[in-house]
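Subject: complex prediction, re-run

Hi both,

The earlier run crashed halfway through, so I resubmitted it with identical inputs.
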Amino acid sequence: QSALTQPASVSGSPGQSITISCTGTSSDVGSYNLVSWYQQHPGKAPKLMIYEGSKRPSGVSNRFSGSKSGNTASLTISGLQAEDEADYYCCSYAGSKVVFGGGTKLTVL
Amino acid sequence: QVQLQESGPGLVKPSETLSLTCTVSGGSISSYYWSWIRQPPGKGLEWIGYIYYSGSTNYNPSLKSRVTISVDTSKNQFSLKLSSVTAADTAVYYCARVKGYYDYIWGSYRLDAFDIWGQGTMVTVSS
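This time it finished cleanly. Structure:
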């Protein structure tokens, strides 16, 4: 059982927007603005998409955005494209340790 | 640009020690924190631990008794040792560069994200 809770799967049609939630506790997501999100295609290494809750690394599309409310962080992908189909993981600093979510499989219909 | 490459045996016997090395190229290992993360087949990611180039470390409490991470700045490498392995340690092992900052008020390092990853190496624990 992962420390952070994500839905197992989400889906959307091309052009639509989807949101993936990541629920933690007051010891991790709720206490620090240090949530990151990773995209992982099959057989590939994870790729950083969002850090510090809402910042995008250079080169990441602005279709990806992050936010947080209380103990829940969210990743929103707008204007869905076929290439967005992948697994997505959230991650949070938790005071001397790091915890991941169980991952969400995004299917683009 | 900075690249990371994991290396080590792909097969380890139960009860033995898993040893992996991550080689950093295209940049210096100094002034950064570096981490190991693993992913069992078909499952999610698990943080193992991180090390500063100076040698200070922090480990996942669930693995702490079996994990050692070390650094060799002369070779631009850092390494993972996981002892007393079982089938549950079968996974793809990734090395990654850590992005974060030192909180001088609280006197601790705050890990923000893993910004550069190696391609991963599959390690199977089996006799």
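Chain B is about 0% helix and 55% strand.

- K.
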